[in-house]
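quick one before i forget lol
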Amino acid sequence: MFTEQDSARQDAAFAELKDEFSRLEQQEKAMRKAAGLPEDGEVKVNDADVTPEVRQALEEAKAKAKREGEARAAQYKNGTSAAGSGASVPGGRRQGVVRV
């Protein structure tokens, strides 16, 4: 049965995700500005212009982002976020706590 408390937790988790997304968008805009790229839209790069070092760094960054995204998704799926546990903890994590 879906209760009002469940709805409140879901709303809190959604608000937390919305805040995280907003923060990441701002970070992306700042990085694009620093790199001299347009604020929105896709950037086309000729593969011949990319050095092997840059290609490797890009692949590593993609892999790291994928791991972090999957970890964040698992955190919310398992209810280990602050909103899911009902606690208000900076950073949304409760380390060393066993959920029963």
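fyi Residues 4-35 form the longest helix (32 residues).
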